[in-house]
Amino acid sequence: MSQEHYILDPTTVGSAVSPSAIPETAALTGFKDIVFGSTAGIIGKTIEFPFDTVKVRLQSQRDDAPLRYRGPLDCFRQTVNQDGIRGLYRGISPPLVGAAAENSALFFSYNIAQSFVRKNLYTDLVTDKLPLNALIFCGAVSGAFTSFLLTPIELIKCKMQVQTIGLQRPISTPLTTSASGLPGASARIHTIAPIRHAGPFALIGEVYRVYGIRGFWHGQVGTFLRETGGGAAWFGSYEYVSGVLRKWGGRKTNSAGEQMMAGAAAGVSYNFIFYPADSVKSRMQTEAIGTKGDKMESFWTVAKRMYKAGGIKPMYRGCGITCMRSAPSSAIIFLVYESLKSYFA
């Protein structure tokens, strides 16, 4: 990812550059990171969300009961049969907000971390990019910061995504014709009334009523582990693959296709390496809301129970479809971000 660094030319001090120019430039750069990251995140999330719904439903299956789904394709089929295509987008409102917040925070804090590291640890660098190990560290810092914004959003999202599991669709049965001829033989009645599910604001109120403010960060340890390690892998993979492609092509910048290739590699590495942490988090966040005064299980308690029930296998349930959807999603995110940054440079 190309980074712009604004270096003060000593020959202009006291003449062409006013003291206010530097913070204004830094503020504008930060604003662009937020806007471009938000836009890229919303587009990427819209593309990947149906796959995310399947992933969460696979992860939420209990270990002490028969599995409801035989795999990703079976989960996809059952979801569509039960709720239609709309069911794959159930709960998308919080994730769209989350995607905007996540990607804006990731890109913003990633660039802030680079500026800090350059200023304090690599003072001899002027225009060269930071070394890869420093970029990986900056990615980890970015992910750690972003995790605190994501946990409440993902909590509501996960609860909405599993609302219809185990429920039947309204079905119709034919009525027989009465002696008076009413109703007709083709008349049908619904034997199961449609169920109205709680929306995001209702769930927010319920979580607060039962658990208080602290309840919105249920699963924070899992999000922190996933985002810290994932942020390092995401940005590290993107920077590494981008650099390799530039070297092979003998160019100073990457083409749109190369940006997408590097973004796809970043998405897969982000999701695969720390997937077990995400599985434990999803299990915690899809549990039914209890009653006031109930205590929430810790990350390590849930992780040990999952491992004891099935070993490492349950922790990678849904990993294949997650990596499959993360490749195009991350490719689009980096392409949109880099394109906007280049266009409005």
From TrEMBL:
Q: Which domain of life is it from?
A: Eukaryota
Record keywords: Membrane, Mitochondrion, Mitochondrion inner membrane, Repeat, Transmembrane, Transmembrane helix, Transport
| Gene3D superfamilies to which the protein is assigned, alphabetical | Mitochondrial carrier domain
* Coiled-coil ranges from the UniProt annotation: none
Record membrane topology = Multi-pass membrane protein
Q: Where do the Solcar repeats lie?
A: 28-116, 130-244, 254-343
A Pfam family annotated for this UniProt entry:
Mito_carr
Location relative to the cell:
Mitochondrion inner membrane
Instruction: Give the protein family.
Output: Belongs to the mitochondrial carrier (TC 2.A.29) family.
The record ties this protein, via PANTHER family, to: MITOCHONDRIAL BASIC AMINO ACIDS TRANSPORTER-RELATED, MITOCHONDRIAL ORNITHINE TRANSPORTER 1
Query: Per its record, how is this protein called by name?
Result: Mitochondrial ornithine carrier protein
**What species was this sequence derived from?**
Discina gigas
